[in-house]
Amino acid sequence: MVPVSFGVPHVQVQSPNGSIAGRVVMSKEGTPVAGARIFLTNLRKRAVTDSVGRFGFADLKPGAYRIEASLIGFGPLSAMVVLGARENKEIEFRADTLGQLLPTIFVEGEAEPVPLRVLSTFERRMSVGQGRFITRDDIVKRNPIRLIDMIRFLPGVRSDCRGAICQILLNHDRSGCPPAIFVDDQRTSMAVLDITPPGDVEGVEVYRGAAETPPELNNQTARCGGAIAIWTRRGRRP
User: Fold this and answer.
1) Residues 11 and 105 both lie in one domain
2) Could you tell me the pLDDT band of residue 152, with boundaries at 50, 70 and 90?
3) Confidence check: pLDDT of 139 > 90
4) In this structure, are residues 151 and 226 in contact, taking their beta carbons and an 8 Å threshold?
5) How many CB atoms lie within 10 A of CB 120?
6) Final residue of a domain: which of 87, 103, 119?
7) Burial class (CB in 10 A: 0-12, 13-18, 19+), 50
8) Which site from 6, 54, 146, 222 is most exposed, i.e. has the minimal number of CB atoms within 10 Å?
9) Judgement on whether residues 55 and 144 belong to the same structural domain of the protein
10) How far is the C-alpha of 47 from the C-alpha of 56, rounded, in Å?
11) Sign for the pseudo-dihedral over CA of 165, 170, 175, 177
12) Could you tell me the residue range of the domain that residue 219 belongs to?
């Protein structure tokens, strides 16, 4: 999918607020895509594209906004849109029919297209500064036998190992709740920490409690015991 933003003329109104509207289409045919999920991450607002692929967010104060689009079968995309006073803008997400991520293009007014780097979910969450993150470089540098060995030695993490089996606890809650485990955004069990080869992992997110866990991972288990999100190298491919 490719987000493209086009500046539109200012609308002379009393309020300094503006709006962001847009649509999601297939890149080659231009066919509208209904049911795509759109997120205005700054304000935690959501929208779903209608039957003609359109969505909109109104009454927005001047400033920079991150828009994300999520469509089944395609990786999530994000793009920045900068609103001036009383400005309305349109963005367009183009979904490639092969399910591949196309380069991101951002256009303002008459300016030349400027490529923007598409942030992965892992990178986006890491940029927030909450939780602990293990990158692919960290894994390669340490070259652990088991993935769990990369996690259990993080500051504040407790582990109870009996032979080859380790139990991980991310906080000091007396309830002793285990963390919620996710692989490529899908809920799973702690067994994956032992059976997933470190060489297959692109990155790991570790959150010690509800306060720092992203909303999309913050289920009942995570609210008690924190969360671990694993991103495999296989999961990153289209």
Assistant:
1) yes
2) confident
3) yes
4) no
5) 17
6) 119
7) middle
8) 6
9) no
10) 7
11) negative
12) 123-236
Strands 104-106 and 114-116: what pairing? antiparallel
- Residue 238 has a pLDDT of 33
**Do 39 and 131 reside in the same domain of the chain?**
no
Average pLDDT, the chain: 78
- Of these ranges, 7-11, 27-31, 65-69, the one predicted with the greatest mean pLDDT is 65-69
Is the pTM of the predicted complex or chain greater than 0.70?
A: no
Provide the residue type at 114 as one letter.
Answer: V
Domain check: are 81 and 182 in the same one?
no
Average pLDDT in the 42-49 region?
84
Q: Are residues 205 and 99 in the same domain?
A: no
CATH number, residue 93: 2.60.40.10
Backbone angles phi, psi at 69, to 5 degrees: -120, 135
Q: Single out the residue in 119, 141, 163 at which a domain terminates.
A: 119
Number of domains forming the structure of the chain: 2
65 touches 21 (CB < 8 A): no
